[in-house]
């Protein structure tokens, strides 16, 4: 490593590495505390940052703890979507975790209800 | 796959912004530059206006362990008298997180503040002797409250208590305080979508309190301030501002103000300066 390489090394270390940050939930459908009339076919979460698909996930459970989301979520850029089984009226719990492309992890949980 | 890391101030589904008047319990890569406070108080019968500028840099060494460096510069002005200004002593503080529970939104850390004597401007009041302050700090979000109390879930509490030992014979002092926070982001994402929108949800109304209670040597009454204000948290920076209300007459009679610009270095430099030195 020569003296001439130090400015390049300093630039790499000190320049902000693109506009990336931890992923905050910005929009959910169904959202927190929502009362949905009729069974929603899917749950969609939108975040503030692009996600690492392999490290991000979401699970929806009913009031008995049974999983009602189907399979792994589909992650596209900053959005995550999972299909839902036909939901009966009742309360459902969402638990999600997201890893942004800068490898910071965030998580969250909330409930929504399905009404007849 | 590279290891993930918890984002700064995040424990489970709860985000704690960096507080201004008191230390939060996280060991993170952060830079507070600057923190500016202005307050008027009586000193030897004169009304003195004190303006202070502070910078604090925190660097994570290992996950959950960080070193913090803090330096300040203060100017004191009184009518008819020359202003006095100078640097505070440099303060070095290691912080170690000792307990975390994402499920209960709870974190505890230990810190040891070392105000290095003789490193500041002596004629501006910086002491030649060092001061040591071991501290315990915690943060607790109330997201685990039962359903009938779900409207309280956006609240969170941070607290700190330290025992100050000064090398100059000053009274031993209990330095204590904390913050009561109401997270609009938590309300929006975990309790009820109130239609706030992503930008408004970034605001955290907060009331901080910062007190010093002398414990011996006729140190006098507890003094301190109660600081209502707000913190806006962006993706890479946060801005906060608070009023400083004196606790009692011994503290002063005038309301001060403090504001801070704070950088989340783990988001700005996620692959270099914003990661622990050792992982």
Pick out its properties.
heterodimer; A: 116 residues; mainly beta; Immunoglobulin-like; 4-stranded antiparallel beta sheet; B: 279 residues; Porin; 12-stranded antiparallel barrel; two-stranded antiparallel ribbon; 2 helices; 16 strands
Question: How would you characterize the overall build of this protein?
Answer:
The complex is a heterodimer of chains A (116) and B (279). By secondary structure, chain A is mainly β. Helix content of chain A is 8%, strand content 47%. Chain A has one domain: Immunoglobulin-like, CATH 2.60.40. The relative contact order of chain A is 0.26. Chain B is mostly beta strands. Chain B has a single domain, classed as Porin. Chain B is built from two helices and 16 strands. A twelve-stranded antiparallel beta barrel of chain B has the order 4-5-6-8-9-10-11-12-13-14-15-16. Chain B has a two-stranded antiparallel sheet with strand order 2-3. In chain B, a hairpin with an 8-residue loop joins strand 13 and strand 14. In chain B, 39% of the residues are buried. The mean pLDDT of chain B is 94. At the A-B interface, helix 1, strand 1 and strand 8 of A face strand 1, helix 1 and helix 2 of B.
Helix/strand structural class of chain B: mainly beta
Percent of residues in helices of chain A comes to: under 10%
Mean pLDDT over the full residue set of chain B:
94
Quaternary state of this entry equals heterodimer
CATH class term of chain B = Mainly Beta
Radius of gyration of chain B: 19 Å
